Amino acid sequence: MKIYLYLFIVFSAACNTLAQFEYVQSDNKIYNFLERMDNLNIIESYNSFELPKTRKEISRLLLSIKENESLLDNIDKEMLADFLIEYEFDIYKSVDHSDKIIDSNGYDLFSQRNKYLFYSSDSSASIFINVFGESQFISVSKPSIKNSFGGLTLIGGEIRGTFVNNFGFLISGYNGTALGDRTSSSLSDKLKFNYKFSENQDSSFFDDTYGYLTADFDLVKFKIGSDRLNLGYGPVKTFLGDNSPPFNYVSFKIDYKYFTFSFFHGKLLGQSISDTSFINGSVRKIDEKYIGYHRIGFNISNSVDFGLGEFIIYGDRPIDLSYLNPFNFYKSTEHANRDRDNSMLFIDFNNTSINGLEFYSTILLDDIDFSKLGTGWWGNQMLLTIGASSSSLYKLIPIDVNVQYVRIDPYVFSHRLLRNNFSNYNYSLSSISNPNTSLFYFGLDYRLTNRFSVSTSFNYYVHGANPINSDGSILENVGGDIQLGHRLFDSENSKFLDGDLEYGRIFSVKLFFEPIKQLYLILDMNYISENLKENFKNKLFSTLFRLYTRI
Fold first, then answer.
1. Choice between 4 and 230, residue whose per-residue pLDDT is larger
2. Half-sphere CA count of 313, side-chain side, radius 13 A
């Protein structure tokens, strides 16, 4: 990593053509701020359905908020001031509030300024380099079981830039070591999907990297690389959430006033099979698998958005050029490809006409036969999301309220061919793991100061699981498992929440504190109480403390 860092510094100084045009990670606190501004109608034409956004898009929105600063409460005014400093180069082409360690006359680790290892900019290019470190401490408590403790520590680096005013890139990576109990440590988001850690039980080492190249021409944007994509309204991302590993993809977007068109094609990981030979030892085989997505969106007014889109999942063959065409209709293309794939159609709607209140809804049709509607036929598979986000008490108290309901019919996201289900390395791409599920979410976000916030949430779900025999085999397939699609001998009828009912309640409290610019203290507490099939009860209380800093 040190070699790569040195080469980028030398390259930037030699050709003097690097600058910035990057995306802001989907879990960044800026998105909660922007969504609140949208609810309050302080900004227009903001759509949270697709994340992340570019720094350029966010900068334009911050300037719009600045023009209406008088409408903000005191805490949001201070938050806006922080963001204007954080994005000062993107907005003003200035580094007046930024410090760097390399080639600097002074650097204060405890200042409230932007901090970098190195940066350089001129009229046509810029580059920004950061080093970051993180420590996580995790405790897990279960009834009648002694408390266990784990955690991790890591160090990494990030290089981002833009050149000739239209092209941007980002490279980020880190190395780390897990500490203490492995089961407890595996609750960390850094280790949940990490191959080096999960596949070698004797190793505590882990690493990860992601990056991309972008081209932004205002009207049209291109991107190739990997980072976390989120698709869907509300806290529970029903399409692409954080439940599966990120993946590499190419994307294309048109953004013109009231009209948007988005497309990406990504590489997923299919079924993993381990084989052993006398000569080569253990050999891992992973099925080829891909995902395609496109959506056309319309801003009917400054406060009403409507979208129509499709997904396609396919595998067991090389990349299909017919799905690389952004302007294809996937369902018809699937038929032309001899019905070997899994296509899904969705519509989404978002309304902020009432000041301080956002309503949204999404409907996904995994499959549909209109002639059999109301018959209970298993093939009529639908996902429904409705929700609301409220900042209606904005003038009285700095609190945001989120309510969301999700219903996923039996067999949604599964497929008769395992390679075509809506998963990545057996993890559901959606934030919800399995079909035949009903979920209710309630959340409160309270801002004590511009740097200190408390978020609480409650999830309640009911899942119709497939009944099993005493030997673990499937007794009856009711469409409750994403890894098991409908088989020829399964019932032609399916009933929502049929099967063995499982109940889950998840309480979460998260404290976020940034005492010094780019030094973050996060405390995340979760209590899970589940009543699963076979009368199995699962209760778990976990606490994660995270210390993260960037220089």
1. 230
2. 23
Q: Give phi and psi for 433, each to the nearest 5.
A: -75, -35
Judged against a pLDDT cut of 90, whether residue 177 lies above it is answered with yes
* SS3 call for 81: helix
For 286, phi then psi, to 5°, come to -125, 125
CA–CA separation, 316 vs 330, rounded Å? Answer: 18
Q: With contact defined as beta carbons under 8 Å apart, do 155 and 133 qualify?
A: yes
157, two tokens: 């680096």
- CB–CB of 133/98 below 8 Å? no
pLDDT of residue 21: 67
Q: Enter the tokens of residue 214.
A: 């972008």
CB 158 within 8 A of CB 169: no
**If we measure between CA atoms, which residue out of 18, 52, 50, 26 comes closest to residue 168?**
18
DSSP states of 391-403 as a string? -TTTTT--EEEEE
| Best CA proximity match to 298, nearest among 346, 254, 258 | 258
Other C-beta atoms lying within 10 Å of the C-beta of residue 6: 10
Task: Determine the distance from the C-alpha atom of residue 81 to the mean position of all C-alpha atoms in its chain, rounded to a whole number.
Answer: 27
Q: Which residues make Cβ contacts (< 8 Å) with residue 202, sequence separation at least 6?
A: none
- Which backbone phi and psi does 149 adopt, to 5 degrees? -135, 140
Query: Model confidence over 259-299: pLDDT tens digits?
Result: 999 999 999 999 887 777 666 667 778 889 999 999 999 99
For the stretch 210-254, pLDDT in tens is 999 999 998 999 999 999 999 999 999 999 999 999 999 999 999
Residue 32, both tokens: 């909660």
Per-residue exposure over 271-280, b if at least 16 CB sit within 10 Å of its own CB, e if not: beeeeeeeee
Q: Return the DSSP state at 341.
A: S
CA dist 133 and 210 (Å) reads: 16
For residue 128, the surrounding DSSP H or E stretch is strand 125-142
